[in-house]
Write a structure and sequence with these properties.
6-stranded mixed sheet; Rossmann fold; 4-stranded antiparallel sheet; alpha/beta; 429 residues; 18 strands; 2 domains
Length: 429
């Protein structure tokens, strides 16, 4: 079709001290994938929240099927036929997989009661369609892995007859096979005439799936067009506002003596006989399929769970972290995969998140010194180019990438010897 199904015109959204969006436009066409591309703080997440009724624009109009519409609530967007798969899954651990998928729109039977057999059958059908036939529908979500929770979120988004599907970093926590299954699902949605907004920082995915692109920079729309006609270098240039000759310049670093030695590291249910050496100045990569135990090993090193055997030697001293506090004292810090639950406190301001592990530096005689907290936070926020209206802004209002910078900043502030990064680019450019 030549006419867009969903069109946003001149959308502006501001928050105290920051302009998130300024007069941006976006068009989504039936049977096509439009990629939304931009750096941290470009306004992508804010636009998605406008499109799903979470935020109301200060200015601008939204048109659905060429009719001007208003979405005062997420339910209004849901009723209109707009659904979203978010990079951070918003699900309920104490409910079953099927209950999470159909929460708010469960199939009903006699006397308007929930039809449990039908709900489980429908959930089974949805999961099978996206290649998640290994997930049971009647188990509680808390017993499901992070990657499988993401698949449940995908199934939930597809459980409604939506015409517009927003995918915000949908592959961030998926294995290669699950990503391929998701790509097949996107192709099926295209063939069914759905209009799809695909947000990703992975150019291989964008060029494989998308038909059109829109680029945001600093809350403004700086370019759009057909992807087949546009080289990647031009899109990168629009994203950053300048020509980028070398995206990842090589750096020569001298590898030093071992700083961490792990031998015979085992856990009764998660991993066994893990051995490796980490040297000063070295980046050591851990690879494996989803569920292979990578995160579990790192969490045990950080004292979040307890190993049953093996030795950990840090800078020549044998250590046995019983808690994260023990690991931090030994110079080991951990940036988790689940940033929203384990990495950042969303309801605290940025400066308090950054200073939290460094209270001994910013307090005297048991009393916090706010000036020192701000000074510490300002130093590391500046080093990482954290983009926010102020350091008093709550971390929960930041984009995913800027939240990740907060987590990195708080660990850099204690000057650790060893930094464990678990899926550090999830939801980041």
């Amino acid at each position: 079709m030549s006419e867009p199904l969903l069109r946003l015109s001149n959308i502006t959204k501001t928050f105290p001290g920051v302009r998130a969006l300024h007069a941006v436009d976006l068009e989504l066409y039936p049977g096509e994938v439009t990629a939304l591309i931009g750096e941290n703080g470009a306004g992508k997440s804010t636009l998605v929240k406008v499109m799903t009724g979470i935020y109301q624009p200060d200015e601008g109009d939204i048109f659905f099927a060429d009719q001007k519409v208003a979405m005062p609530t997420p339910h209004a967007a849901f009723q209109l036929g707009i659904t979203a798969i978010h990079q951070e899954t918003v699900l309920f651990d104490e409910l079953t997989v099927a209950e999470n998928i159909f929460l708010g729109h469960c199939p009903k039977g006699r006397f308007n009661l929930i039809d449990w057999p039908k709900m489980n059958a429908n959930a089974r059908h949805l999961l099978d369609d996206i290649g998640a036939n290994h997930i049971q529908t009647d188990i509680r979500l808390k017993d499901v892995s992070i990657a499988n929770k993401h698949l449940v979120a995908v199934a939930r988004a597809l459980s409604v007859e939506a015409d517009v599907v927003i995918m915000d970093e949908p592959t961030a926590a998926l294995s290669h096979k699950e990503i391929e299954d998701l790509f097949s699902l996107v192709e099926k949605l295209k063939s069914d005439g759905k209009a799809i907004l695909f947000i990703s920082h992975k150019f291989d995915e964008i060029y494989r799936l998308a038909d059109r692109y829109t680029v945001f920079r600093d809350g403004e729309m700086v370019g759009n067009g057909m992807l087949a006609d546009t080289p990647q270098s031009h899109i990168v240039e629009m994203m950053v506002g300048r020509s980028v000759e070398q995206i990842f310049p090589s750096r020569n670093v001298e590898i030093g003596a071992p700083v961490l030695n792990v031998k015979g590291f085992s856990h009764p249910t998660e991993f066994a006989d893990i051995e490796f050496d980490l040297h000063k100045g070295e980046v050591l990569g851990f690879y494996g399929l989803v569920g292979a135990g990578r995160s579990e090993v790192m969490q045990a090193l950080f004292g979040m769970t307890q190993s049953t055997s093996g030795t950990i030697t840090s800078n020549g001293q044998v250590i046995s972290p019983k808690s994260p506090a023990d690991a931090i004292k030994a110079g080991i810090v951990y940036l988790p995969e689940e940033r929203g639950k384990q990495g950042v406190i969303l309801d605290l301001p940025i400066f308090q998140n950054i200073s939290l592990p460094s209270l001994s530096q910013t307090s005297r005689n048991g009393f916090l010194r706010m000036a020192q907290e701000f000074e510490l936070a300002r130093k590391y926020a500046s080093r990482l180019d954290l983009r926010a209206a102020s350091l008093s802004q709550h971390a929960g209002t930041l984009s995913g990438g800027n939240q990740q910078k907060v987590v990195i900043a708080k660990w850099l502030a204690i000057q650790p010897n060893i930094i464990i990064l678990d899926e550090p680019t999830k939801g980041c450019p």
